[in-house]
Write a structure and sequence with these properties.
By secondary structure, the protein is α+β, with helices and mostly antiparallel strands. The protein has 19 helices and 30 strands. The chain starts with 5 loop residues before the first strand and ends in a 22-residue tail after the last strand.
């Protein structure tokens, strides 16, 4: 296996501080720590977050992921002057995140305003072996003259969420000269956080500890000869609990003991253990590309790194936020992104993690039932935005219109109900990929029956049929429409799959089966016209179209809303992302290749791609239809959402779903992986400049390794496993190689897939 690549920050710029603080964040699924510099900058947003730790700050607010006290900051004074790259002269710069090991490394040579030169190096990591552990090492070397160096660091509880304070300082203590501990509770008393830090400086330092204005700091100063290195080693243990039975003294005592054990080992030993854990992750997950553009491999490594550090594998009561654990965007809330864009990666690399993410929704069924009941429906209506306990967290209002002074209502929680079917879709995908009957017999059936019951109650009798009115599809520029194609088809599939699974496990009663049968028979499913185009909703095709070229150039910035109000956008053929193309992706068995091509051709010119989720899906559908060059361009555009040159693209956190989409585009697009009622299917279609692609895959409990070229497909399987290769059903045990010339290829350059759904293994 090749060694994972790195991400390098090209140079120091105050304009991109927060972008790289997100992209180069440290984490392990338990915690996320933004890659802010040790020294302070006014525009730099520090952040440390724990998966599942939310709090509501006050009236009119929603729960948000709590920004914890900072443990990264170090006040550095060199000969009495503060160290800052905004002063003096930066002579050498290197900063990189090593995806293979999770270590962030910075090295600079800086000339102070007084003329003295210093080499400053820092390293840090969030442990992949011990989730509560974060470690930092800072080294300073005067290069040409002796210097007096002062360092202040510790636990800074002045951090807020954009001005909102969530934590009360309960207790701060010092143990000996090197151990600091702060105990904090959320202001509602529901959760407690304990942060314990070990701070040790090499050499003959004069040190004292201060506790003032929510800062607990160790302050040290020493004289250093030219060429002599001073090293600060800082090891921090962060833990929390929302168990009402918790004993505060026990939590703080256990934290201190764990920190002492870590401190006795030191940075290098702790880092070695973390590297070993990272190595195991890459061995089970890495996608390797041999091609002419090294950025492709870097993008995949970047995506998998973040997919790993955003996922709370330790806690099934937590899920993945839209900005992961890298920033405060969307207040750390969980959306449909998790099931559709993030869960598939885990489904095919670590199915137990996918199961856990689904159990997060199962645990929160009570809240979903209550939301449905409150709105006059039955079953489970999951919140559009959720936190830890399954309540609706979508803000009721958006920002105030500065011209009118009126707040605009946020409609997603009221009408964007496709999330319900998206969760059901993920449950079925899990079953097809794993065959996990134990999960399906309990949690899976519960989720499917409850979501199906919601749709049955949500439908309205109209025009002699059942319709679904007043919804918002994935295209959020088109609000409050009837018979949104994405919603209707996904709801139909949700109910059909629920009936199938309920009968399989002898669950459900006759009333459920009867109402489900009526729903499936009478629900209106919009039909493709003679050209193969599926109407997005009842009124979309009757709306006027405008030239969107200049808005598409700035995709993702929502510049259309600078020229038109939301109400005006709603009355034109303007899409944030294309519902119908998304539907073609979600339910590939329902649409022919001709229909998918027709919908791509019709809807793409009408789509601005202002959603970070949009281009990746267009790319996968294009790949499935044989247009690999177009698919690759969409894939690269999706990568640039975070990794492009825009300096503020990710200031408030990475786009988590976009990282999942990088993996989806490679594996579901170019490797042609898809799930069907008949099982897993591979139909590779590599970009021309990719000579080889290798990736691991879990299918029906069997670990596989797939190697694809333009001539061959090689499969290694740990046990006997059966799946589709293009239109042929094959069984592999051990190792097998297939020549692409053995398959009948269509004129578009892809293997034929007709008859897949009707053919049974």
């Amino acid at each position: 296996m090749m060694y994972a690549t790195t991400l390098n920050e090209p140079g120091f710029s105050p304009h991109s501080l927060n972008k790289y603080a997100s992209l180069m964040a440290s984490g392990n699924g338990y915690m996320g720590v933004r890659a802010t510099h040790e020294e302070d900058y006014t525009v730099q947003t520090r952040g440390m977050y724990l998966a599942g730790l939310y709090h509501r700050a006050g009236k009119g607010e929603t729960n948000e992921l709590v920004n914890l006290p900072d443990v990264v900051g170090v006040q550095i004074e060199l000969n009495g002057a503060p160290f800052s790259l905004l002063s003096g002269h930066l002579e050498q710069w290197h900063r990189e995140l090593n995806f293979a090991t999770g270590e962030l490394h910075r090295s600079v040579v800086w000339q102070a305003p007084c003329g003295a030169h210093f080499a400053i190096e820092s390293r840090r990591f969030a442990s992949a072996a011990q989730p509560e552990l974060f470690a930092l090492r800072l080294t300073i070397t005067p290069l040409d003259t002796a210097a007096r160096i002062s360092l202040s660091t510790g636990i800074d509880a002045t951090q807020t969420n954009t001005g909102r304070q969530h934590l009360d300082e309960t207790q701060v203590r010092v143990f000996g000269q090197h151990y600091l501990q702060g105990v904090y509770t959320t202001q509602d008393g529901a959760a407690e956080v304990v942060i314990s830090s070990f701070c040790h400086i090499s050499g003959e330092a004069q040190s004292n500890v201060t506790a003032k204005n929510r800062r607990l700091l160790q302050n040290s100063a020493l004289e250093v000869a030219a060429g002599e290195r001073v090293t600060l080693e800082k090891i921090t243990w962060i833990t929390w609990s929302d168990d009402s039975r918790r004993e505060s003294a026990t939590l703080s005592g256990q934290s201190l003991q764990a920190l002492r054990e870590c401190a006795s080992r030191g940075y290098d030993s702790l880092f070695s253990a973390s590297k070993s854990a990272w190595r195991r992750f890459w061995q089970r997950s890495r996608v390797e590309i041999e091609g002419s553009d090294p950025r492709d491999q870097q993008a995949l490594d970047y995506a998998l790194y973040h997919l790993h550090i955003m996922t709370p594998e330790h806690d099934e009561r937590s899920s993945i936020a839209a900005k992961a654990l890298t920033g405060e965007g969307y207040k750390g809330h969980v959306f449909w992104d998790t099931e559709v864009f993030l869960l598939p990666f885990h489904l095919f690399t670590a199915p137990d993690v996918a199961r856990q993410l689904l159990r997060y929704r199962w645990h929160n069924l009570p809240g979903a039932r209550e939301k449905a009941r409150r709105n006059g429906w039955q079953g489970a209506l999951f919140p559009w935005e959720s936190a830890r306990r399954g309540e609706e967290e979508t803000p009721e209002f958006a920002a105030i219109n500065i011209r009118t002074g009126v707040r605009q209502k946020v409609a997603s929680a009221l009408a964007e109900h496709h999330l319900v079917a998206d969760i059901a879709w993920a449950v079925i995908a899990y079953w097809h990929a794993t065959g996990d009957e134990r999960f399906m017999a309990h949690e899976g059936v519960d989720l499917l029956i409850e979501t199906a019951t919601f749709w049955i109650s949500r439908a309205t009798e109209c025009n002699g049929r059942l319709e679904i009115h007043d919804v918002i599809g994935p295209d959020e520029y088109t609000e409050h429409v009837n018979n949104n194609a994405y919603t209707n088809y996904m709801a139909h599939d949700n109910v059909a799959q629920a009936v199938h699974v309920a009968r399989h496990f002898a669950r459900g009663d006759e009333a459920f089966y009867a109402s489900a049968a009526a729903f499936l028979q009478h629900l209106w499913l919009p039909e493709c016209d003679e050209n193969g185009v599926l109407p997005q909703d009842d009124t979309f095709l009757a709306k006027p179209a405008i030239d969107l070229t200049r808005y598409k150039v700035k995709a993702g910035k929502q510049t259309i809303l600078l020229d038109y109000s939301r109400a005006e956008v709603n009355e034109m053929q303007i899409l944030k992302q294309a519902d119908v193309v998304m539907l073609n992706y979600m339910l590939p068995d329902r649409f022919t290749r001709r229909e998918c091509l027709a919908n791509l051709a019709f809807y793409e010119p009408r789509t601005i791609h202002d959603s970070s989720l949009s281009k990746a899906i267009h790319g996968i559908v294009a790949a499935r239809c044989g247009d690999v060059p177009q698919a690759y361009q969409f894939w690269r555009d999706g990568i640039d959402i975070d990794l492009g040159e825009e300096p503020h693209s990710s200031d408030d956190g990475i786009h988590a779903a976009a990282t999942g989409a990088i993996w989806l585009g490679a594996i579901q697009g170019f490797a042609g992986l898809s799930l069907h009622q008949g099982g897993v299917k591979l139909a590779p279609r590599l970009p021309a400049h990719w000579q080889k692609m290798t990736f691991p895959l879990h299918c029906q409990g069997v670990a596989m390794r797939c190697t694809l070229t333009h001539q061959h497909i090689n499969i290694e399987a740990a046990a006997s496993v059966s799946f589709w290769l293009y239109d042929q059903y094959v069984t592999v045990e051990g190792e097998a190689s297939f020549a692409l010339s053995d398959f009948i290829l269509s004129a578009a350059g892809t293997a034929t897939t007709e008859g897949l759904c009707s053919r049974k293994p």
